[in-house]
Amino acid sequence: MGMGGRCATALRQIRLLSARGHKIILGCLKNSAAAEKCRAMGVTVCDDFRFRRGFRPLAFRHDCALLKKICREHKVDIVHAHLSQESWVACLGTTLCVPRPVVIRSRGVVVPVKPHAFNRWQHNSLTSMVVAPSNVIYEKLRDLPGFDANRVTLIEDGVDTERFSPQTDGSTIRAEFKIPDGVPLIVMVARLERVKGHEIFFKALAKVAAASPDIRALCACDERTPGEFDKTVRLARELGCGENLLSFTGMRGDVEKILAAADMVALPSLGSEGSTRVGLEAGASGKPVVASSVGCLPEVIIDGKTGLIVPPADPDALAAALSSLINDLARAKALGAAARARVVELYDEKRMIERLEKIYTDSLNTPVDA
Question: Tens digit of pLDDT for each residue in 210-224?
């Protein structure tokens, strides 16, 4: 059973597990995008969960009872929780079940876990395994005092290396945004949140364009807060990124074509990055990434070999790195080719799902006693 399908990793796992013949039930919030996508895949969806943050005893009781009902009716073997508010529902709700399903939890954020008694109980007694998508999270979890390090495993996030490929045609994107072949194109793909570093990107892009006025850039971004998109566009224009330099695509379903059209990808995050979907998709597409040194980015993007790493919140350093690739597109292509090879070797989603299946099997053979 998949819990918390709001994240892209959960949806990817659901798609791959379903294709391999597993029966999946998605537990999520009503009217969520995850529910719509899973129904389109033919996955059973229960969207009556509440998953309230903080101390909400009535909502928590409702969710635990609902989970018990689902587990009983569908004879659920495994409950996999992806977000913190769902983890407690998974851990405590399953204690009401006979037999009790195995609980697997994913931890995809770099925010430190507080090693207090309740979290130690959840980890050591109620959870079979915690899956970390990157080494930076894996090491932090294993080092927590009083936590069983053997209940933590590393399964790097995966990417569809067939959808995201150097063979993907990006010419339609260049035609749509009137970017001639041969004009260097920088792309940024990120949700509209401050932590993603859009302002840093705009400042750096203006500096790059001052030295290389023939470049173009695309920003693919979604609007989760009403008015944020217009606010971001205004900010870009105020910082010197005019319409002739930077176009906004909105968040689209053909991001693989946007990456295919690019010569390089900027990833100027200010924090977080427990995993990096864009970093992996760009690498699989054969594009070099210029990324900040936060979270898992330095372990996914190898500085000087598959891309470039710069300090966070430093538009001058970001501009210098982007300019160095614009001035040496042969090097940019070489870095992109190396990125593709590394992603195929280490981060292919088929490898990810095979390792997850093994965790499921091993956990079923050695369940945790509540």
Answer: 999 999 999 998 877
Helix (H, G, I), strand (E, B) or coil at 75: coil
Extract the runs of DSSP E, i.e. beta strands, from the chain: 2-3, 25-29, 44-49, 78-81, 102-106, 129-132, 152-154, 185-189, 216-220, 246-248, 264-267, 289-292, 307-310
Contact 130, 107 (CB under 8 A): yes
Residue 14 belongs to domain spanning? 2-158+349-365
Does one domain contain both 64 and 146? Answer: yes
Q: 322 lies in a domain?
A: yes
Residue 334 near residue 341 (C-beta atoms within 8 A): no
Are the beta carbons of 266 and 255 closer than 8 angstroms? no
Residue 48 lies in a domain: yes
Largest CA distance in the chain: 67
- pLDDT tens column, 280-325: 999 999 999 999 999 999 999 999 999 999 999 999 999 999 999 9
- Residue 163 resides in a domain: no
| pLDDT for 106 | 96
Contact 9, 274 (CB under 8 A): no
367 band by pLDDT with thresholds 50, 70 and 90: low
Query: Residue 13: is it exposed, middle or buried by C-beta count within 10 angstroms (0-12/13-18/19+)?
Result: buried
**And the tokens for 38?**
């899973």
Q: Which pLDDT does position 29 carry in this prediction?
A: 92
Q: Structurally, how many domains does the chain consist of?
A: 2
